[in-house]
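Run: sequence + nicotinamide-adenine-dinucleotide -> complex structure.
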Amino acid sequence: MMFDTCRILVTGGAGFLGSHLCERLLADGADVLCVDNYFTGSRRNIAHLIGDKRFEAMRHDVTFPLYAEVERIYNLACPASPIHYQHDPVQTTKTSVHGAINMLGLAKRLRARILQASTSEVYGDPTVHPQDESYWGNVNPIGPRSCYDEGKRCAETLFFDYYRQHRLQIRVVRVFNTYGPRMHPNDGRVVSNFIMQALTGKPITIYGDGSQSRAFCYVDDLIDGMVRFMGVEADEPGPLNLGNPSGLTMMELAELVLRLTASSSRIEYRPLPANDPRQRRPDITKAQRLLKWQPKVPLEDGLNRTIAYFKALIDGRL
Ligand code: NAD
Ligand code: UDP
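>> structure
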């Protein structure tokens, strides 16, 4: 096994994606150091890993330097949902930019391979569909989403400058909408909103007319893609899109969630948020070719697993 003797740092390891990644890396045989400031993540997400001898959790804010000895770094620390990243936009940019500088500095000293969780948001409100990695994006530099979008774009710049200037081994992943158990129930994202609303009998809030489209990837598929990319031995910095290419409208998603939860919630229309992209769908040709990877979990299965998680959360079983 490639990860048998490897010590791996996961920043943002107590978050939604980070906690699944820690779990996967431990299962692969690695030692995992999870670093998180618990802004949007929680100890509950990693509680089941705490007893494992190969797992260590450290409270730390990545905007400050970190001293640790590891062979691989996955940099996921950053609030990901608009409600959370707009709560303190200056801190969001700092987390992306200073966090990248600190983690790249650490990787440089250790000569460690480092993966950055970038985002489809670097494409902004895209004028090209679906988006492939060569598209430069259409991002508003001064809007309410800019602290996140431009922070992530600057982090990509830093990663590629460390790659060119310091010959660092980097892997930049552009993550598209991902969902699954351990999403934050109040993060305002569409999957968690619709499921929580359906399960609690509240109206399903559709922003705009519901004709905007997205494509949702189940968390296990996404994590598998990330781990495969980190494992590529060739000089492959990316950027690499990871996500599920099969899209649907928000109206279709609302109807699906209502059916799967057997809910009688009604639909309520709300104004569309500023700079809300009309459509977003990844072109994953490069990942398919490079990683022999593609998402396997159908939307209905993934939603059922997520619904079961939120039900347990509501019933106080978690
Ligand atoms: P999340 O909010 O659940 O996880 C982020 C984690 O980072 C949290 O545990 C949070 O406490 C931690 N964190 C935030 N600021 C920090 C700081 N300054 N220092 C240390 N820890 C800090 O979000 P997620 O969905 O798991 O996203 C993980 C990463 O993936 C993020 O970088 C996000 O931008 C990226 N991403 C996620 C998606 C998605 O659909 N989930 C899409 C695109 C990109
Ligand atoms: N959305 C919605 N109702 C909600 C939350 C979101 O209709 O309760 C819409 C939102 O306007 C966007 C889409 O769902 O068009 C996806 O939103 P999300 O915040 O989950 O992800 P992103 O916009 O970053 O793709």
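>> summary
Residues 82, 177, 189-190, 193, 205-207, 212, 214, 250, 272-273, 276, 280 surround uridine-5'-diphosphate (ligand 2) (CB under 6 Å). The longest helix spans residues 89-110.
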